[in-house]
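Duplicate of #3305? Posting structure anyway:
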């Protein structure tokens, strides 16, 4: 009820305005404390009248109920004590009669007000319709006037044309002869007749239009006169309604004063309600903050668990890399042992060959030269192996430094997590302080409520005093005074009810505050539990990290011990090789001495042979005789010769030749192929190869192999580019274009890739750019130069269920690294299908 009355009062106390309809102006009253401004809108008037009717009906019902009650309320007792007179018993029936009369008057007034409001609405609608018709008729009039003016202008133009034609006719008559003039006059007369006919037709149409427009104007004027009469009647009715409204204003002003008072009370109540709503909003915000803190704690726990998982994965990757490096070192040791065994075998063969060299002096010299070259190459291989071991050691040290840096980063992240926990504790403390402040505010609001109660009691006392004053002044209007008293009693009763409702709301708010305090206590308990869990988790993480550090230290020590053992073995092997080289050098010196002595003997034998040859010249005939005897002896020994031929054929078959001629041809072919290959090796430096990722293990091995085969090789690197390699960022397409077009390689071996799975998972965009985009760009540039591209892929493009794999197997990568390598294969084939080869590097151990 209070809200409805307040809404009616707000509607009544609108902005001042002026209503002008049908030429009459009605000024609106400015709303002061005891006045109200009437708006012209029908909805506002109907709402106000309905609210007043409701208010009067409710007052009458409550008055009847109060009159039926026998026991008086404390408020009525107080007023009875103040207003007690000896003629109370005689005044009651008079009061009832007055009340009944007032009720009847109010009902009749309400009915009249409703009827007037309805008539006013209908009149407004009729006036609006008439105004719209008037506007339409005026528009039609303006259009007709415009058409009339246009027709008049056309008639004037035609008249001017007639005058000009008559003048031209007269001029032509004066100039031309009678014969020609007659013909021309006839033609001109015909034209004039046509023009006159046209003019007559246009004049007829114009006259018809003028008549139509005049008829329309007459109808419009009649409608205007009729509408003016209606407007005059409506103005008279409006004046009558205004008089009735002026009478109604005096009646409604009192009601509006009462409504304003009620609106003030309702505003105070709404203020309290707004304060309560604000308190509820603050409590909701605090709950939301607590939920946000819980979410942040959960996210931090998830982040810490993810960090632990990443650490475990990195440790596993380090262990895998360690196992790979151990397998690589074992393979290297096996290869070295195999090379040493090969060297031993070669030494045995060389000893056998030395024994044979004693018989063949010329072959010994060539074999000695070959041995020198092989020893020099072995020495170079040893030096290169030492360089590779040192570079591998540097790489291992760099990777260990990287792992240490990552561990330091993890420690920093743990410190950040501890700081976040401290910040959360501080925020919880600040929230507890804010809750205490909110409790203080609640206490202040309770004090304000008590003050308002006191003010209310004072206001009641003031109202009682004013009521007594009005009794003194208005003794004649006792009926009005009693009605006013009843209304005040009802107001007091309603205010008491409101006070009780407010007290109940305050009690509810206190309960809500207690519930919120309990919730906060529970939240603090949960927070403490969460802190304990976080501390426990942090301790577990710290213990795990300590264990991981201990494991890493153990692995470091084992690596260092293995490296020391490897160094010792290498030193021992180098010492053994040095000893063997010294022995070989001593043997070479002995062989050289033997060869020199043999050469001297050969010279002496040559001299002796020459002397013998000179001496045996006179005995040539005897030698011929001996040859004849020899042929005879050979004929005698034909059977022995056949047996020798059979043995030689069997020996040739064992070697894979049918006879000695085929063996000789095969040996000649081998010599020719060797010479051809040597000639090709002379042209090898013109063959150029570009190797990406030459700073890695695979790239270094490929670079070394091409260099050993006399290729003009150029290596590329980015992070650990040495002086012999070119430092290039493969993501820079301009730099890649420049180096390929400057070097013009015949072959490009693409070894560069992001092969670390943890880095690929943590930085997927960078990994895809290097493994996919850079590979596609390199294939495009290779196609532009006409180079053959070798793309190094991996067995991670398969799921690892059935190795070894073939070209026909369907790829199924399980991690992001394998997916990026598979996408790199597709990008390479899309950009350069003609000259591309994809090599899969598989771990078969």
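Output from current build:
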């Amino acid at each position: 009820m209070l809200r409805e009355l307040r809404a009616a009062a707000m509607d009544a106390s609108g902005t001042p305005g002026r209503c002008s309809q049908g030429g009459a102006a009605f000024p609106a009253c400015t709303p002061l404390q005891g006045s109200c401004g009437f708006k012209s809108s029908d909805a506002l008037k109907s709402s106000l009248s309905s609210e007043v009717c409701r208010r009067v009906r409710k007052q009458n019902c409550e008055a009847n109920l109060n009159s039926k009650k026998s026991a008086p309320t404390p408020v009525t007792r107080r007023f009875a004590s103040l207003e007690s007179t000896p003629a109370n018993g005689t005044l009651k029936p008079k009061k009832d009669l007055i009340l009944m009369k007032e009720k009847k008057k109010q009902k009749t007034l309400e009915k009249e007000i409703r009827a007037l409001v309805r008539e006013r609405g209908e009149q407004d609608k009729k006036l609006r319709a008439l105004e719209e018709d008037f506007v339409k008729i005026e528009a039609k009039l303006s259009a007709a006037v415009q058409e009339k003016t246009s027709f008049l202008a056309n008639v004037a133009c035609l008249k001017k044309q007639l005058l000009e034609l008559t003048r031209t006719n007269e001029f032509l008559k004066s100039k031309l002869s009678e014969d020609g003039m007659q013909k021309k006059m006839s033609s001109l007369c015909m034209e004039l007749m046509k023009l006159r006919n046209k003019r007559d037709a246009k004049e007829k149409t114009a006259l018809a239009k003028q008549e139509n427009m005049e008829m329309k104007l007459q109808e419009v004027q009649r409608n205007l006169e009729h509408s003016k009469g209606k407007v005059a009647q409506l103005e008279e009715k409006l004046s009558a309604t205004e008089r009735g409204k002026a009478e109604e204003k005096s009646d409604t002003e009192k009601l509006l004063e009462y409504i304003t008072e009620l609106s003030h009370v309702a505003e105070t109540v709404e203020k309290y309600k707004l304060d309560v709503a604000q308190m509820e909003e603050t409590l909701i915000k605090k709950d939301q903050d607590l939920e946000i803190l819980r979410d942040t704690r959960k996210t931090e726990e998830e982040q810490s668990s993810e960090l632990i998982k990443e650490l475990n994965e990195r440790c596993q990757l380090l262990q895998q890399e360690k196992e790979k490096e151990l397998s690589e070192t074992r393979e290297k040791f096996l290869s070295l042992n195999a090379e040493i065994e090969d060297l031993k075998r070669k030494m045995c063969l060389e000893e056998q060959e030395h024994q044979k060299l004693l018989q063949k002096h010329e072959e010994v010299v060539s074999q000695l030269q070959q041995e020198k070259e092989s020893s020099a190459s072995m020495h170079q291989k040893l030096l290169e192996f030492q360089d590779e071991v040192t570079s591998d050691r540097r790489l291992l040290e760099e990777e260990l430094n990287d792992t240490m840096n990552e561990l330091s980063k993890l420690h920093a992240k743990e410190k950040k997590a501890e700081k976040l926990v401290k910040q959360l504790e501080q925020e919880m403390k600040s929230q507890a302080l804010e809750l205490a402040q909110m409790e203080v505010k609640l206490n202040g609001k309770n004090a304000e409520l008590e003050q308002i109660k006191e003010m209310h009691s004072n206001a009641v006392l003031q109202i009682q005093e004013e009521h007594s004053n009005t009794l003194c002044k208005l003794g004649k209007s006792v009926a009005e005074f009693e009605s006013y008293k009843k209304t005040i009693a009802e107001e007091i009763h309603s205010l008491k009810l409101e006070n009780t409702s407010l007290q109940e709301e305050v009690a509810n708010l206190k309960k809500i505050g207690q519930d919120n305090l309990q919730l906060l206590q529970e939240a603090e308990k949960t927070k403490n539990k969460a802190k304990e869990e976080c501390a426990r988790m942090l301790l577990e993480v710290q213990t795990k990290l300590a264990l991981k550090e201990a494991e890493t230290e153990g692995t470091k020590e084992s690596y260092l011990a293995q490296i020391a053992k490897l160094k010792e073995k290498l030193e021992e092997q180098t010492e053994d090789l040095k000893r063997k080289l010294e022995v070989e050098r001593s043997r070479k010196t002995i062989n050289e001495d033997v060869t020199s002595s043999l050469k001297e003997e050969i010279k002496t034998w040559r001299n002796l042979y020459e002397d013998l040859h000179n001496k045996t010249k006179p005995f040539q005939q005897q030698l011929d005789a001996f040859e004849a005897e020899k042929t005879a002896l050979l004929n005698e020994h034909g059977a022995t010769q056949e047996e020798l031929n059979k043995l030689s054929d069997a020996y040739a078959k064992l070697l894979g030749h049918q006879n000695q001629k085929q063996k000789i041809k095969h040996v000649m072919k081998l010599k020719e192929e060797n010479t051809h290959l040597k000639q090709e090796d002379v042209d090898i430096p013109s063959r150029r190869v570009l190797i990406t990722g030459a700073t890695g293990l695979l790239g270094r091995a490929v670079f070394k192999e091409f260099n050993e085969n006399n290729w003009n090789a150029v290596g590329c690197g980015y992070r650990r580019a040495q002086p012999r390699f070119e430092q290039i960022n493969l993501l820079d397409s301009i730099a890649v274009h420049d180096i390929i077009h400057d070097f013009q390689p015949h072959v490009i071996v693409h070894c560069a890739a992001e092969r670390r799975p943890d880095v690929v998972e943590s930085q997927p965009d960078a990994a895809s750019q290097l493994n996919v985009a850079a590979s596609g760009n390199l294939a495009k540039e290779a196609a532009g130069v006409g180079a053959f591209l070798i793309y190094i892929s991996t067995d991670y493009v398969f799921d690892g269920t059935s190795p070894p794999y073939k070209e026909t197997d369907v790829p199924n990568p399980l991690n992001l690294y394998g997916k990026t390598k598979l996408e790199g294969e597709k990008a390479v084939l899309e950009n350069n299908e003609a000259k591309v080869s994809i090599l899969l590097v598989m771990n078969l151990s």
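Confirmed duplicate; merging threads. Confidence is low (pLDDT under 50) at residues 1-46, 65-89, 681-685. Residues 683-841 form a domain with the Rossmann fold fold (CATH 3.40.50.720).
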